[in-house]
Amino acid sequence: MKIQIVRDVLEANDQLAGDIRNVAKKEGFTLMNIMSSPGSGKTTLLERLIPALTKKEIRTAVIEGDITTTADAERIVRMNIPVAQINTEAFGGDCHLGAEVILPALHQFDLSSLDLIFIENVGNLVCPAEFDTGANVNVVVISTTEGEDKPLKYPLMFRVCQVAVINKIDLLPHLDFDIQILEENIRKINPMMEIVSCSAQTGAGFDELTKLVIAKR
Amino acid sequence: MHELQIATNIISIVEEEIRKAGKTEDIDFVYFVAGKMRAIIPESLQFSFDVMKRDKPFLTDAELKISEIPIKIRCKNCKAEHTLDEPVFRCETCSSPEIEIISGDELYIDSIEFSDT
Predict the structure, then answer these.
(1) What are the chain A neighbours of B114 within 8 Å (beta carbons)?
(2) Contact B67/A at CB under 8 A
(3) For the sheet containing A163-167, what is the strand order?
(4) In angstroms, rounded to a whole number, what is the distance separating the alpha carbons of residues B106 and A26?
(5) What pLDDT shows up at residue A88?
(6) How much is the average pLDDT of A14-19?
């Protein structure tokens, strides 16, 4: 005997993600989810972006999803903004942040005093794309030391994001990397993607990135 | 790696449905639908499911049947429909980027089948 079910396997997560968007609407903040491979420079990017936003009187906070260490959170805390640390497992655990860990993390903040909350997701281009965090804006960071074909290998990630940040452009002179090809590949997957190039190390491109982040708020 | 979480979710949803239906028979098959967009590796999902089901009553002999759905798009501009064989999300007819995905992002349990005995 067969019984028809037709139930989405991510329904529990998607429902919580919807709850998070309702909280954001009610409290008047924007939730921005930053995703990338390990080592593309998410934390360094935030270290440069957040002071620029603070200067424009945008009040930020960060939910840190770094798997095992508090190293990334410590770097963010130095900027004197609220940080909620999600530590999954001491010896490497979850490969993504689900809505069920984002919601309690949000409630660690005084939400009414914040404009923009970043999620620094786990470094991974597969699983974080699959699980809706409840973010209003999804951002993928890709660095010039990765291959130009990354978008073609991880299409879901580049479909769920509205913004792509190409980081580490200061290294271009030393690399056999064609930024044009990367941009073409991004647009093959997501023709509507907004793309910004920058270097979190030197600060190049950050005026444009800051403007874009403010516009997305 | 997301396959493990998905297998866990499949099992808890199926257990809930068994309770709801008041069934005490074993389950033979769980029919699962995965769109190509979701980047599910069937072998990996199968493996995770087989590991997770071991200590579950009614599920120890269950087999996961996965059907994969191709990615289909419809152009908002010229209304043409295409099945994507490679990841280029643009209308093949008029090359407009304004497309909608009409299938390929499914991720659901379609049905469960109980043994008749």
Answers:
(1) 1-3
(2) no
(3) A83-85, A60-64, A116-120, A30-36, A137-143, A163-167, A194-197
(4) 30
(5) 59
(6) 96
CATH number at residue A176: 3.40.50.300
The ipTM (two decimal places) reads 0.85
B8 lies within 8 A of chain A by CB:
no
Query: Quick one: pLDDT at residue A70?
Result: 66
Using a CB–CB cutoff of 8 Å, tell me whether B112 touches chain A.
yes
Q: Could you say which of A131, A159, A192 has the minimum Cβ distance to residue B97? A: A192
Share the mean pLDDT of chain B.
Answer: 93
All domains of chain B in start order, with CATH: 2-114 (3.30.2320.80)
A36 three-class SS: strand
The number of domains in chain A is 1
Residue of B nearest to A191 (CA): B97
The tens digit of pLDDT for each residue in B14-40 reads 999 999 988 888 999 999 999 999 989
pLDDT at residue A135 in the model: 98
Note whether A191 contacts B87, CB cutoff 8 Å. no
DSSP 8-state symbol, A95:
S
